[in-house]
Design brief:
This protein has helices at residues 2-8, 10-15, 79-94, 131-134, 164-174, 190-202, and strands at 29-30, 41-48, 56-59, 68-73, 106-112, 117-122, 127-130, 142-147, 152-154, 157-159, 179-185, 213-217. By secondary structure, it is α/β, with parallel strands linked by helices.
C-alpha cells in the first residue's frame, strides 16, 4: 500500500511539505487510461479526512487559469462531498474574465494500474447538477440512467455494472435518436464514479450519446 501511495501521490506530498502539514490523497484507480501525459498544468487537491469523514478540504492555491488543470480527488470521498468542490473549481475557470485560455482543459488525476503510473480523465465539458436544487431540463429523447452502489436503473429495468454498456446499446438499436444522462447516487464513492466513467469512455458507444450534464441525486 505504501508503495502505491508514494508513487501516485508524490505531487500532493511535495506540494504541502513546505507547509509542515503533509497530507495524503488516495487517487482513484483505473485499469487503463488513454491519457498519460499533459503539459502546461497546475494542480488542485480535494482531501479526505479519515478522522472526520464529513470533512472535505479543497486546496487550489496553485491553479493558474490559462493552464490545464489536474484535479486530484481522494477516491474515498462521496459524490456528495466531492462534486461541490469540483463545481467550484469549474466555475472559477469558466467565469474567468481575464487571462483565459480556451484550449486549457480539466482532468481528473488517477492511478493507471496497467502501467503503475498516472493516468487522466478529461471532464472539461461536463456540467454537474444536484437534482434537489438545479435539475436540468430533460429532453424527450434523453434517457436517465440511475447509478448507485448496488445497481443501475434504466427505464425501470435493473442492471448490474457489466450489463450497462450492452443495455445502452440495446436501447440505441431500437431508438437511434436516444441519448443518456448519467445520474449518480450522492453516496457513491469517487472511486466508483471513476470506474463507471472509465467503462463509458472505453466503450464503443458514440461519444455524443452520453450527455455532458451529470446529476447527483440523494
Amino acid at each position: 500500500m505504501k508503495t502505491k501511495i508514494y508513487l501516485v501521490l508524490a505531487l500532493a506530498i511535495l506540494s504541502f511539505w513546505s507547509c509542515s502539514n503533509n497530507k495524503v490523497i488516495e487517487l482513484p484507480e483505473l485499469n487503463s487510461s488513454n491519457i498519460h501525459e499533459i503539459l502546461d498544468v497546475s494542480p488542485a487537491y480535494i482531501f479526505y479526512n479519515p478522522s472526520e469523514k464529513d470533512s472535505v478540504e479543497l486546496n487550489r492555491k496553485n491553479l493558474i487559469s490559462t493552464t490545464n488543470w489536474l484535479v486530484n480527488v481522494d477516491k474515498r470521498l462521496t459524490m456528495k462531498q466531492a462534486i461541490p468542490k469540483i463545481q467550484f473549481i469549474q466555475n472559477k475557470k469558466r467565469n474567468a474574465e481575464m487571462h483565459k485560455n480556451e484550449n486549457a482543459k480539466n482532468y481528473f488525476t488517477c492511478h493507471d494500474l496497467s502501467i503503475n503510473n498516472l493516468g487522466f480523465i478529461e471532464f472539461t465539458d461536463v456540467y454537474y447538477y444536484f437534482s434537489a436544487e438545479q435539475k436540468p431540463t430533460i429532453d424527450q429523447n434523453v434517457i436517465e440512467v440511475f447509478i448507485d452502489s448496488k445497481a443501475i436503473t434504466i427505464t425501470e429495468k435493473t442492471l448490474q455494472k457489466e450489463e450497462l454498456i450492452p443495455g445502452l446499446k440495446s436501447i440505441l438499436t431500437s431508438n437511434a435518436s436516444s441519448s443518456f444522462e448519467m445520474q449518480w447516487d450522492s453516496g457513491l464513492s469517487f472511486q466508483e464514479y471513476i470506474s463507471y466513467k472509465e467503462l463509458l469512455i472505453n466503450s464503443d458507444l458514440p461519444k455524443e450519446v452520453i450527455s455532458k450534464k451529470e446529476v447527483v441525486f440523494n
